[in-house]
Amino acid sequence: MKSKFNRRRENKVYIGIIVTLGVLLGVFLTSKSWMYDDSAIAQTPYNKSINGLNQTTLILRSWEYNPKNQLMEVTIETVHTGTDAAEPTFTFEAKGKESKETYPAKKVYESDNVMVIHIEHVPTEYRVIGLFVIEHRDDKILKQEYKRQLENDSDAATTETDKIEKFDLPKPEDVIIVGDYRETEVNKNLVAKSDKAYQKEAIVTDMERIKQEISTIIDENIPFQQELITTLTKEKTSLKSEMEFETKEEQTETEKEIEHKDNAISSAKEEIEAYKSKVKELKEKYDNRKEKLDTLLHPERQLVEENHEPKEQKQQQQKKKNKDEPSGKEGK
């Protein structure tokens, strides 16, 4: 009877140990999702210029992750800031910071200076992913640069461009864009899409960004400058009224201060005009994107316009011809 009781007690102890270990394991595996992580965020800032390449400035627009299919989608804008006539091409590599494991990375869409890159097989327990963007300049341009360097070197022998070997040329430059799990957007609907869908997304996102920029200028930047002008004008008026009771030396100093405020008011007015010009430019850009989106979504309208265009041109040409020809009365 006693041994039976002891066995039951031992079984309970074992079950308790197993349950405890299971709970601890569950806590360990899911800690990333609920436990506070006080490590420094490694995320590359969104919507900021990324330097480091020879010919291109990059801007990280978005970074999404679908844990279900372990797919990441990174959207990058490219700005050609170099002097090469031929714009460079790009290849990509992705690597986990902790695991050092390499993940397949490929460009799935490129248009209008926007590239969409997919990183595949990224495990849900990832923390930081580094995306290497490698810039490949045109070989002909690199050979010409190398030849000019040789010509400037008095000790170097002249080399024909076609005789320059690949290993003589500089290696492609790269820059690392970093995604931190705390700054990566979880998108459970993320899948590979068609070129048309990516193009639509790029245009819509650009339009939203333009609208936000216009709103910031109209609602914040211009009112701030207007308020500054009002404040400076009041201060200037106050200074002028005080001059009546000042000595000549004090008046000289006050006049300098008034002149300083006048200059600040002029600068603020110029700033407002610059903002207004920027808003006008952004609105034109927005209308351009809107027209492009409309053409993408309704290509049949573009065909109708193209079919009508020759007829309208003929009518205009005929009107011009009739206007230029002398009338019958004048001929007689």
Reconstruct the topology from this structure:
Blueprint: H1 2-34, E1 49-50, E2 56-66, E3 71-80, E4 89-96, E5 102-103, E6 105-111, E7 114-119, E8 128-136, H2 139-152, E9 173-180, E10 185-186, H3 195-242, H4 248-297, H5 299-324, H6 328-331
Parallel strand pairs: 2-10
Antiparallel strand pairs: 1-2, 2-3, 3-7, 4-5, 4-8, 6-7, 8-9
Helix pairs in contact: 3-4, 4-5
Q: Please, could you describe this protein's structure?
A:
The chain has 332 residues and is α+β, with helices and mostly antiparallel strands. Among the domains are: 49-137 and 172-190, Sandwich (Immunoglobulin-like); 208-310. The chain is 53% helix and 20% strand. The strands form 2 sheets. Strands 1, 2, 3, 6, 7 and 10 form a 6-stranded mixed β-sheet that branches. The protein has a 4-stranded antiparallel β-sheet with strand order 5-4-8-9, with no helix packed on it.
- Look at the structure and give the mean pLDDT: 85
How would you sum up the global shape? Answer: extended
Separate helix tally = 6
Q: Given this structure, which CATH class of the domain at 49-137 and 172-190 is correct?
A: Mainly Beta
Radius of gyration from the alpha-carbon trace, in angstroms: 33 Å
Low-confidence stretches: 327-332
Query: Helical percent range?
Result: 40-55%
Structural class: alpha+beta
CATH evolutionary superfamily of the domain at 49-137 and 172-190? Immunoglobulins
- Per CATH, the architecture of the domain at 49-137 and 172-190 is Sandwich
What is the number of E strands? Answer: 10
- Portion of residues in beta strands equals 15-25%
Question: Tell me about the biggest sheet?
Answer: 6 strands, mixed
Order of helices and strands: HEEEEEEEEHEEHHHH
Kindly identify the CATH topology of the domain at 49-137 and 172-190. Immunoglobulin-like
Beginning-to-end CA distance, first to last residue: 140 Å
